[in-house]
Amino acid sequence: QVQLVESGGGLVQAGGSLRLSCAASGRTLSNYALAWFRQAPGKGREFIAAITWSRGSTYYKNSGKGRFTISRDNAENTLYLQMNSLRPEDTAVYYCAARAEGISTPSWTYEYWGQGTQVTVSS
Which of 15, 46, 91, 115 would suit a FRET pair with 64, their CA atoms being 20 to 30 Å apart? Predict the structure, then answer.
């Protein structure tokens, strides 16, 4: 089992920045890929970015490229999402997720999920 706990969400003005954290525990993550997803009201869960825990290889969906950066701290077992130039359309609940294989984008391929953290961007 892998436990994931997100933090760092909040209210920010358009153009601002936030850094989300996801603390992972319960299992060695060396063979895992971790990802960030988000879900806006009335919409499905959207893939943002993913990273392989051991090598640190990353993959981004177009909507996050250039503004969002995924990273991890192996020693602290923590996943991060640095979000810059935030827009009102980035308002959503942000989730971290883990799967015991390589990077994948569909949400149903991830086995473990955090509880989510709310990000609200005001115009």
Answer: 115
